């Protein structure tokens, strides 16, 4: 698919940022995760109420683009750090230079891509796919966020965005997109939408989770990032889709005396974990790997700490409120789903209000580093690890800029550089009904070759389906 870049510009906030807010200091939790860029693409068909059959009105497309820019400018006045530049790995220069905004055109219709979407092509709908800085660790002077709007020959549209993980997690990213859409929808529909009732963003997480100025910054960053429970390496990506019926069957299978009400995320997470552990053992045997098969696997799940704090932080707190819960799972015998669910629940339960409170205040850093040390000791006892993150219930399929909801929401394939590609990773996303789950799985190609033909998995999942042909 050929995508032509039409223009590049910076969209600045509609009003200047106050002087006392010109430097945004990251919180302690912001230093926990790799400062890479988070991708997302939303795909919108041409709403036929605006055009006659087979006739695409260029004026409508131009109007929508202008609407997106105006709404983005208004939104950035509240989300001001996103309009700035990376100052260093500890702060953002909120200089109002704006979000990097690209207009592009695809010479094919949207349906042609969605009929059988190629993961390798998704990067064409994201800003500067050939610019490595958007795919790796940012450096001083880089944009905090960027957007690309790609129009298709049918009048459809893909809105792709990168936002630095330095400024927030998936919850924060979704709040920004919903707020942008709300501003656009008000202009398009000339009425208040439900999204317009969103609370304004709060950028003061560093007051609760401060960096400790008494601790050398470089030493702090090195200590934190050397203990991250994340594995990097060359990998491939496949999508595994679980529809509502399959999830109902999975939940029934995961239910037992110790698990009365497994969630859809728990059911999918544990099945994928079970199958990946089996595939990894098979791959290790076939390659004569020296990996100790008696060692357990570490299942590592990202947990949103906002709702686990006492009192909880509201969902409009920007920044990263993530910690990794780690469960060691033996692979000597094939584990039952309910056992895996129990182990994950026990690990997540440890991230309670007392844990969150221990990371706050002047003593937060020492407790933070101690927790990292314990975490590292846990996953270094494992033969390998699988890292999960769930974007379910983030509401991406409700994001309406004024011409309807998206037919698909996607991330993208792994970076080409093994140094920045997270290996053995799973990202869970809603399907467009909100009842299914689409799992984006990133594995070594040899392990993936085994997993994608695992009949135990394929009883419940479809591999790389069309988003517009599958009832989900």
Structural class: alpha+beta
Briefly note the CATH topology name of the largest domain: Chloramphenicol Acetyltransferase
Measured by DSSP, the beta-strand proportion falls in 15-25%
Low-confidence regions: 50-54
* Total count of strands: 18
- State mean pLDDT (0 to 100 scale): 89
For the record, the CATH architecture of the largest domain stands as 2-Layer Sandwich
CATH class of the largest domain: Alpha Beta
Output the CATH homologous superfamily of the largest domain: Chloramphenicol acetyltransferase-like domain
Protein name: Transferase
GO molecular function, one term: acyltransferase activity
Organism: Citrus x changshan-huyou
Family: Belongs to the plant acyltransferase family.
What can you see in these coordinates?
This protein has two domains: 3-209, Chloramphenicol acetyltransferase-like domain (Chloramphenicol Acetyltransferase); 231-463, Chloramphenicol Acetyltransferase (2-Layer Sandwich). It has 472 residues and is α+β, with helices and mostly antiparallel strands. It is built from twelve helices and 18 strands. Mean pLDDT is 89; it is low at 50-54. The chain has helices spanning 58-76, 110-115, 170-189, 205-208, 217-226, 244-254, 264-286, 337-349, 353-358, 364-379, 445-451, 455-458; strands spanning 3-11, 23-25, 37-44, 85-88, 91-93, 99-106, 145-151, 157-164, 231-232, 236-242, 297-304, 322-329, 384-390, 408-410, 422-423, 425-430, 437-443, 462-463. Strands 12-11-13-16-17-10-18 form a seven-stranded mixed sheet, with helices on both faces. It has a six-stranded mixed sheet with strand order 1-6-7-8-3-14, with helices on one face. Helix content is 29%, strand content 22%. Helix 1 (58-76) crosses helix 3 and helix 7 (264-286) crosses helix 11 (445-451). The radius of gyration is 22 Å and the shape is globular. This is Transferase. Pfam families: Transferase.
């Amino acid at each position: 698919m050929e995508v032509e870049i039409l223009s590049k510009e910076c969209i600045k906030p509609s009003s200047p940022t106050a002087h006392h807010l010109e430097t945004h200091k990251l919180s302690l939790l912001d230093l926990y995760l790799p400062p890479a860029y988070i991708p997302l693409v939303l795909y919108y068909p041409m709403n036929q109420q605006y055009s006659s059959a087979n006739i695409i009105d260029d004026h409508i497309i131009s109007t929508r683009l202008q609407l997106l820019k105006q709404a983005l400018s208004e939104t950035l006045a509240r989300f001001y750090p996103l309009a700035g530049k990376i100052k260093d790995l500890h702060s953002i220069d909120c200089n109002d230079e704006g979000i990097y905004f690209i207009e592009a055109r695809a010479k094919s219709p949207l349906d042609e891509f969605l009929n059988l979407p190629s993961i390798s092509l998704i990067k064409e709908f994201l800003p500067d796919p050939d610019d490595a800085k958007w795919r790796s660790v940012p450096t001083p002077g880089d944009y905090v966020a960027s957007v690309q709007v790609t129009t298709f020959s049918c009048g459809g549209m893909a809105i792709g965005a990168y936002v630095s993980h330095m400024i927030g997690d998936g919850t924060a990213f979704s709040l920004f997109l919903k707020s942008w859409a709300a501003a656009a929808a008000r202009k398009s529909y000339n009425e208040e939408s439900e999204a317009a009732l969103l609370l304004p963003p709060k950028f003061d997480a560093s007051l609760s989770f401060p960096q400790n100025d008494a601790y050398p910054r470089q030493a702090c960053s090195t200590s934190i990032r050397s203990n991250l429970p994340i594995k990097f390496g060359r990998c491939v990506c496949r999508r595994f889709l679980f529809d509502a019926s399959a999830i109902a069957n999975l939940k029934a299978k995961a239910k037992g005396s110790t698990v009365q009400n497994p969630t859809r995320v728990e059911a999918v997470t544990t099945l994928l974990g079970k199958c990946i552990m089996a595939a990894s053992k098979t791959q290790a045997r076939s390659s004569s790997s020296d990996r100790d098969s008696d060692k357990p696997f570490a299942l590592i799940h990202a947990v949103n700490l906002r709702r686990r704090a006492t009192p909880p932080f509201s969902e409009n707190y920007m920044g990263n409120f993530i910690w990794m819960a780690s469960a060691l799972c033996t692979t000597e015998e094939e584990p039952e789903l309910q056992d895996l669910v129990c182990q994950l629940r026990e690990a997540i339960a440890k991230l309670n209000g007392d844990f969150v409170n221990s990371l706050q205040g002047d003593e937060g850093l020492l407790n933070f580093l101690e927790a990292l040390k314990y975490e590292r000791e846990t996953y270094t006892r494992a033969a390998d690890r699988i890292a999960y993150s769930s974007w379910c219930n983030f509401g991406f399929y409700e994001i309406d800029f004024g011409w309807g909801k998206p037919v698909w929401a996607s991330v993208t394939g792994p970076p080409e550089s093994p140094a920045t590609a997270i290996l053995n990773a799973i990202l869970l996303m809603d399907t467009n009904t909100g009842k299914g789950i689409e799992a984006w799985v990133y594995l070594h190609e040899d392990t993936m070759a085994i997993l994608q033909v695992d009949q135990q998995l394929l009883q419940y999942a479809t591999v790389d389906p069309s988003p517009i042909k599958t009832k989900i």
